[in-house]
Every structure is written in structure tokens, then in C-alpha cells.
Design goal:
Layout (H helix, E strand, L loop, with lengths): L1 H13 L3 E7 L3 H9 L1 H7 L5 E8 L6 E8 L5 E12 L3 E8 L10 E10 L2 E9 L4 H24 L1
Helix pairs in contact: 2-3
Length: about 160
């Protein structure tokens, strides 16, 4: 019975993990910089229909970051923030991620881990975000990140 409960708990956790693998036609140093340099990040971060209007960061383990995405149609601002846990240029980036709530509190925190591997001038990025409170929250983030990564691909091609 304990094994069954353990298997069930692992399956439930897997439902709350987001993994996206994407290949970019750019060297990994450029892709890594697009994630860590505010000038670049503000050009692509956020799904279509949103504009990143602010991104501040202290790019060091333990350093904080904060970002604002504005809805293009309504002007609504959505803030998110976190703390860098690990920075290994240009191979790995790990940080916490949480949305600011209307009452000023922070929403549920997830951990984002991104690895970058270069193969022949192209970069394979593996993006992992966990543990979401619900599978529905994971699915919403999957749509947002997928759209953002489409924008990142277009931005990298323009450089």
C-alpha cells in the first residue's frame, strides 16, 4: 500500500512540473545573454500580447530579479520576481519565480532551471519549472513560456 501511495504522489508531482525543450539557431553564449541581459530580455520576455516594461536584476547567486509585463490591450501590469540560485555562464541558470499578488504578497514560488547545450552553433535549451500548485497553473505557464520562446527565437534571428 505504501508503494502505491508513493507512486501516486510522484505522479501527482509530475503533473505539476513543466519541461520545455527548444532548439535555437544561435550559439549558447548568445542565448544565455538573452536570458541575463535586461536589454535583450525585455525584447522577448512575455507571451504575445504582452510587453516587458521593466527588468532589474543582480546577476549573482542570491541576487534578486524583478520584472513587469504589461498587457498590450488593457495596460494591466503583472509583476513577478525571484532570486538567482545558480549562474554558470553559458551553461545553466537557476532562479526562483513568483507572481506578485494584488494585495502585495507573493504568490506560490516555483524553481526555474534552464540548461543550454551547444551543438554546431545551435543551442538546445531545456527549461524546467516546478513545482506548481496545480496542473492548471502549469498548463497556463506552458502557454505563456511557449509564446515567449517563439518571440526569443525571432529575436535571436534578428541579431
Amino acid at each position: 500500500m505504501a508503494a502505491s501511495a508513493s507512486t501516486s504522489a510522484r505522479a501527482e508531482q509530475a503533473d505539476r512540473v513543466l519541461v520545455i525543450t527548444r532548439v535555437f539557431d544561435a550559439p549558447r553564449a548568445r542565448v544565455f545573454k538573452a536570458w541575463t541581459d535586461p536589454v535583450h530580455l525585455m525584447r522577448w520576455k512575455g507571451p504575445r500580447g504582452f510587453t516587458t516594461t521593466s527588468f532589474t536584476r543582480a546577476l549573482t547567486p542570491g541576487g534578486a530579479w524583478r520584472s513587469c509585463m504589461r498587457r498590450d490591450d488593457t495596460g494591466e501590469e503583472l509583476w513577478q520576481s525571484g532570486v538567482y540560485r545558480e549562474i554558470v555562464p553559458p551553461e545553466r541558470l537557476v532562479f526562483t519565480y513568483a507572481w506578485d499578488q494584488d494585495d502585495g504578497s507573493r504568490g506560490p514560488e516555483t524553481l526555474v532551471t534552464i540548461t543550454f547545450a551547444e551543438h554546431g552553433g545551435r543551442t538546445t535549451m531545456i527549461f524546467r519549472q516546478a513545482l506548481f500548485d496545480t496542473a492548471e497553473s502549469r498548463d497556463g505557464h506552458q502557454g505563456g513560456w511557449t509564446s515567449s520562446f517563439e518571440r526569443l527565437d525571432e529575436y535571436l534571428a534578428s541579431l
